[in-house]
Each structure stands twice: as structure tokens, then as C-alpha cells.
């Protein structure tokens, strides 16, 4: 007899969503998180209106930042600006993920934090999961019928099963500065700066976030698909200071880096046998869209739906999961093929954006409207 029907590794959005729906579906579920919670997590913390539908929850106001983002503004390489009204959820991952952990537990999932999912051993009809408590230096082994890995871009389990998906160095990174100051910018606007010198993966950004002290700070950040994130960030930060009279002290720096090969044709991988990958661990990170928490929530929820269907019909769970995820994986792979990193210079980037802007804007409005009528697991990821 197995210890659990499902073990979920990773207490972020994908993992917590999966654990909640698994427990609600009657599965004996264990959710594990490597950090002591509540924990910090570098992330944009921005999502669209359909996010509540994916989560199956109304987001409490106290889990959001003080400032509501109501507008977006794109700044192209030549300085042209294009803005539009667009409401977004704005949150820090520490209080937000803590809320999701609580919801999973309230649904019936067991939760253990400060424990590392070190490795797995696959059997014909179950999986042995090795967990390590680093403080106590204690190893724990549990058996489970199914396993969901939602541990992000530095997944130990994906590295164990597919080491070829990782490099010896790091393939990409992001970096944020939080400033206690003022700027000639609108606090309710998300500013997106498209410039290959500052970010060769997506846009660099400025907007307002709320830190643990309850105060609001300007966050200035960027990312890239190479090792030069510090140089790119400093260049962008200096531009913002001069252009928008940004003042104040940098009170916090945060970022992350990944060794997963983001350029690989096989970046998207949903797992094998009884081991299902979700969120960034499945390679669903999508720089073209600039967001990934929506695909994380949907993949976690769909993974559980696949498990429940496999149990009811005694079918292969991976075949079901792959079929259910086709819309998301197809979109992610398509976007990977048109990432801005393939462009040679800012002139090409400028032409690319201007050529597609009208079509993209219309598609965004259309799909946002259609999503109101679609099921939670059938949402079209935005921007489309």
C-alpha cells in the first residue's frame, strides 16, 4: 500500500493549485516546499483578470499590493510610447503563495515546508520519493501513486530524469531593484521597455510593489537569456534615473538564474509514466508573453484532472495529461520560436513590434472576452 495517492513538490502557484484540487478530488495528497514558509520568491507578481478563474478562488485584497495596476505602457527602442487601460492583479509572491499553501491545507492536503525533494525512484505502479530535511539532516522516503514536480526552473527531479535539458553554467536570469523614492511616472501603470540592450528575452519593466513593511516601492528590473544580467540592469537603471528623475535608495535587490536550457527545442516536457511536470519545471516559462503564473496554475490543475481521469478509467495518465495540455504546450512552443532573442538589433525589434502591434491588440481584446465563457482549464493564455 502506498503512503499517498499524490505527492506534489513545490509550494508555489502550480504546486499549491494542484494540491488543492487533488485533495478536493479525494486524493490523499502531500505538498512539500523546500523553503521555510512564508518565503520570498523573485517574480513579477502580475496577472490578468482570468487568474481567479484558473485558481478557483477569489483573491483576498490583503494578499495584493497596495497599488492596483490599471494601465500598461510600451516604450519602443526609438522612444515611441503606446499605452492602454488594462487592469491586472499586482502581488508579491511571499504573501500570495502563503495564501495558496493555506488553501491547499484547508482543502485537505498535508503540507510540509523546509524540506527538499531530492530524488525519485520509479516503479511500475508507484513512485518512491526521497525527501531531505536539511536542518535535521534527515532523509524521509514516501511512496505515492503519482508525483507532480512543480519546483520551477531548477528542478532536481527533471535534472535527474533529463540532465541533457540543463547546462553547466546558467542560461538566463532576472534582477530587480526596489527603490524608496519618487519618479515622474504613474504609479498605476506597468511600464514595458523593449530594447535588446536591456533585455534580450522580453521587456524591461518599472512599476510599484508593496514590500513586507507595507510600504510601496518602485521596482526596476530586467532579464536576459545570457550571463550579462548585471550589466543590462545597470544600464537600464541608469537610463530610468536620468529619463524619469527616479530618486531614492535601493532598499532591496532580488533575482534568480536558471541552468535549464531555455533555447532547447525540447524545453517543454510534461514528464513520463507517473511523474508529471507542471509550471516552469515543465518548461512552460514563456518570455514572449512575459508571464508564466497563469500557465503554472492551469498546468497544476490540469495535471490533477488527468490523474483523476486516469484513476476513473484505468488509463495512462501521461497520454491524458499530454492531450489535455495540448493548447498550452502548442502556444508555448510557438512563442518560443518567435522570441525576440532571434532578432539581431533594435531596428529589427522596432519593426517586429510595430508590424504586429495592431493584430496583437485586437487578439488580446478578443481572447480576453472569449475567456469569460471558457472553462477554467480551457483559458487562452494572454497575450495570445
Descriptive report:
The chain has helices at 13-24, 51-55, 93-106, 156-161, 229-244, 293-313, 317-324, 326-336, 346-371, and strands spanning 4-9, 29-32, 46-47, 69-75, 81-90, 110-112, 116-122, 127-133, 138-149, 172-180, 189-193, 204-210, 216-224, 249-258, 271-272, 275-277. The chain has 384 residues and is an alpha/beta fold. The protein has a domain at 4-65 and 92-166 and 261-345: FAD/NAD(P)-binding domain (3-Layer(bba) Sandwich). Strand 8 (127-133) and strand 9 (138-149) form a beta hairpin. Helix 1 (13-24) runs parallel beside helix 3 (93-106), helix 1 (13-24) packs parallel to helix 6 (293-313) and helix 6 (293-313) packs across helix 7 (317-324). The longest helix has 26 residues, at 346-371. The termini are far apart. The model has no long low-confidence stretch (mean pLDDT 95).
Task: Briefly summarize what is shown.
The protein is of the alpha/beta class and 384 residues long.
Look at the helices and sheets and give the structural class. alpha/beta
- From the 3D structure, determine the CATH topology of the domain at 4-65 and 92-166 and 261-345: FAD/NAD(P)-binding domain
- The CATH homologous superfamily name of the domain at 4-65 and 92-166 and 261-345 equals FAD/NAD(P)-binding domain
Helix content: 25-40%
SSE arrangement, N to C: EHEEHEEHEEEEHEEEEHEEEHHHH
Tally of alpha and pi helices: 9
Distance between the terminal alpha carbons, to the nearest Å? 45 Å
Strand content: 25-35%
Biggest sheet architecture: 8 strands, mixed
CATH top level assignment of the domain at 4-65 and 92-166 and 261-345: Alpha Beta
- Average pLDDT, all residues: 95
Radius of gyration: 21 Å
Amino acid at each position: 500500500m502506498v503512503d499517498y495517492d499524490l505527492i506534489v513538490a513545490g509550494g508555489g502557484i502550480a504546486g499549491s493549485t494542484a494540491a488543492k484540487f487533488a485533495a478536493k478530488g479525494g486524493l490523499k495528497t502531500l505538498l512539500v516546499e523546500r523553503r521555510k514558509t512564508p518565503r520570498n520568491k523573485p517574480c513579477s507578481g502580475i496577472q490578468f483578470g482570468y487568474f481567479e478563474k484558473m485558481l478557483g478562488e477569489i483573491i483576498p485584497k490583503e494578499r495584493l499590493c497596495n497599488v492596483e495596476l490599471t494601465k500598461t505602457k510600451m516604450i519602443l527602442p526609438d522612444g515611441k510610447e503606446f499605452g492602454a487601460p488594462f487592469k491586472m492583479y499586482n502581488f508579491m509572491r511571499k504573501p500570495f503563495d502563503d495564501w495558496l499553501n493555506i488553501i491547499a491545507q484547508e482543502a485537505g492536503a498535508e503540507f510540509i515546508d523546509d524540506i527538499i525533494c531530492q530524488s525519485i525512484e520509479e516503479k511500475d505502479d508507484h513512485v518512491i520519493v526521497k525527501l531531505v530535511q536539511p536542518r535535521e539532516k534527515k532523509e524521509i522516503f514516501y511512496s505515492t501513486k503519482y508525483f507532480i514536480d512543480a519546483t520551477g526552473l531548477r528542478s532536481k527531479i527533471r535534472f535527474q530524469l533529463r540532465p541533457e535539458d540543463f547546462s553547466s553554467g546558467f542560461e538566463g536570469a532576472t534582477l530587480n531593484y526596489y527603490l524608496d523614492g519618487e519618479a515622474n511616472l504613474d504609479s498605476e501603470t506597468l511600464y514595458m521597455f523593449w530594447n535588446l540592450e536591456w533585455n534580450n528575452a522580453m521587456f524591461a519593466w518599472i512599476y510599484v510593489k508593496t514590500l513586507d513593511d507595507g510600504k510601496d516601492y518602485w521596482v526596476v528590473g530586467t532579464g536576459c537569456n545570457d550571463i550579462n544580467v548585471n550589466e543590462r540592469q545597470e544600464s537600464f537603471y541608469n537610463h530610468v534615473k536620468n529619463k524619469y528623475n527616479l530618486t531614492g535608495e535601493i532598499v532591496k535587490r532580488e533575482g534568480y538564474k536558471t541552468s535549464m536550457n531555455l533555447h532547447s527545442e525540447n524545453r517543454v516536457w510534461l514528464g513520463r509514466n507517473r511523474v508529471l511536470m507542471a509550471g516552469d519545471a515543465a518548461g512552460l516559462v514563456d518570455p514572449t508573453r512575459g508571464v508564466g503564473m497563469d500557465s503554472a496554475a492551469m498546468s497544476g490543475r490540469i495535471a490533477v484532472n488527468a490523474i483523476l481521469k486516469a484513476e476513473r478509467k484505468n488509463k495512462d495518465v501521461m497520454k491524458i495529461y499530454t492531450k489535455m495540455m495540448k493548447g498550452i504546450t502548442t502556444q508555448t512552443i510557438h512563442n518560443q520560436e518567435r522570441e525576440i532573442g532571434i532578432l539581431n538589433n533594435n531596428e529589427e525589434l522596432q519593426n517586429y513590434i510595430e508590424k504586429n502591434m495592431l493584430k496583437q491588440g485586437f487578439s488580446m481584446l478578443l481572447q480576453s472576452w472569449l475567456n469569460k465563457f471558457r472553462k477554467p482549464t480551457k483559458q487562452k493564455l494572454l497575450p495570445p
